[in-house]
Amino acid sequence: MKKTIAVLPGDGIGPEVVKAALKVLDQIAEQYQHQFEYRYADIGGIAIDLHQTPLPQRTLDTCRQSDAILLGAVGGPKWDQLPSHMRPEKGLLQLRKSLQLFANLRPVTCYESLLEASPLKPERIKGVDFVIVRELTGGIYFGEPRERRYDNDEELAIDTLTYTRKEIERIVRKGFELAQVRRKKVTSVDKANVLESSRLWREVVDEVAKEYPEVSYEHMLVDNAAMQLIRQPTYFDVMVTENMFGDILSDEASMLTGSLGMLPSASLSAIGPSLYEPIHGSAPDIAGENKANPLATISSLAMMLKYEFGLEEEAEALDEAIESVLKKGIRTADLASAGVEYHSTEAVTNEVIEQLSSIRV
Ligand SMILES: NC(=O)c1ccc[n+]([C@@H]2O[C@H](COP(=O)([O-])OP(=O)(O)OC[C@H]3O[C@@H](n4cnc5c(N)ncnc54)[C@H](O)[C@@H]3O)[C@@H](O)[C@H]2O)c1
Ligand SMILES: CC(C)[C@H](C(=O)O)[C@@H](O)C(=O)O
Ligand SMILES: [Mg+2]
Description:
The protein is of the alpha/beta class. The protein has two domains: 1-102 and 269-361, 3-Layer(aba) Sandwich (Isopropylmalate Dehydrogenase); 110-258, Isopropylmalate Dehydrogenase. Helices cover 40% and strands 20% of the residues. The strands form two sheets. A ten-stranded mixed β-sheet has the order 2-1-3-12-11-4-5-10-8-9, with helices on both faces. A two-stranded antiparallel ribbon has the order 6-7. The model has no long low-confidence stretch (mean pLDDT 97). Bound molecules: nicotinamide-adenine-dinucleotide, 3-isopropylmalic acid and magnesium ion. The site of nicotinamide-adenine-dinucleotide (NAD) has 23 residues, from helix 4. It comes from Alkalihalophilus lindianensis. GO terms for molecular function: 3-isopropylmalate dehydrogenase activity.
């Protein structure tokens, strides 16, 4: 198979984890006789530095002309003081909007060998396997008006939370479709006791649910959901929710797996190529130290192979290789207990490659 991949390393640890993931992809290419062409492009802080904009037109074009997109992370203290339309994060948001990457799938799977790496009790997280389906191109991230002004000498900031019925419908449908091929259970998370947008959300969920009679579903308020994630995480199968709730709940959920550095994601497009990225950020506190956990990005690649290219065997081999590395106790600092030896980004990556190459094709 021959595919082109737009590669957007971004800032901080972004370039480190992307480099690691592509090294692994090179191994897959060699082992399974595929050709992956990488087309590099700038986004975020690096793009501001080099092109005075967080999302250059060339980057957008490169993404549109590729079969899939791999992204590291954007942002960092260097750009924190810039006005909001010039921030690195704005580049990512514009990219999501331009490519209509409306469905962000964030699988949360607890590896057997990492049970003790989570702050939660092993018996509580054993068997955790659910997916957060996060709406990614609507809600308070994009609503208008969004402004700062003075009202009778009082300084004021406004953000707007908007959802159309259509936007809700398409993401909820994704959630139900996914549940259908999993354990057939949807938890829709909202704040319908307060927000009008959540009341519309609930109505739409009730309607869409009728099309999937074999899937059971429920509504859950977001504050309760945040608590249930810790109390009984094995309860969940597919959790579908709006943009900001999904952002917050997925960082919380990542700790069930032991680290934010473990959670991959796929941002599926309504119109063109989809984007694959770890859920974590640019981690400025460890950037440049060869310390970042590359597994979230490597797992995002496994999602790309499976969802975008239909390469199930390769994706499974990659998951298997990751599991073997963790079983051997080889892990980056974020997963190691205090006083226990930990490995560099490169060492973990090389070990994944080593494990991959031992899998017979
Ligand atoms: N998708 C993205 O590009 C994305 C996502 C989240 C945050 N950000 C941006 O990243 C910058 C830093 O944000 P933050 O510090 O709040 O969140 P962060 O996710 O970058 O880091 C939070 C904590 O988790 C650790 N961490 C994150 N990824 C890790 C990994 N792979 N391996 C080991 N440890 C890891 C970091 O060291 C840090 O202590 C901000 O500018 C933010 O806007 C970008
Ligand atoms: C960087 C930021 C805009 C982004 C988000 O909030 O969507 C990030 O936190 C994520 O989870 O991908
Ligand atoms: Mg986030």
